[in-house]
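Usage

Read records sequentially. Each one opens with the input sequence:
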Amino acid sequence: MELVPYASHRRALELQRDSEALLLLIPDAEGRGRGILSGKVFEYLAAGRPILAVVPPDGAAAELIRQTGAGVVVAPDDIDGIEQALVSMRDRFAAVGSRRSS
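and closes with the structure output:
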């Protein structure tokens, strides 16, 4: 994981396209997070990279991620699920890398 400090919007889009995976965080916030479908979701979809969506599983963002097959949805309070999703994404990335080098 790499944390990037502030970047211009153009640079942020470049970084998204160059990433192995993208992390989408939307808290439940007592139910208010379910209706959030920010522009970030659409930027991530356009980048074409796998998305780990740590979002309310019954919310708008989760539904869109599932419909598009763009990534994995995990509830913000599901620590074990987040860990499993990260390990799974890491393992898929490692498998692709080893096939490329063969």
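Summary fields computed downstream for this record:
- The beta strands are 22-25, 51-54, 71-74.
- Residues 4 and 81 are 25 Å apart (CA to CA).
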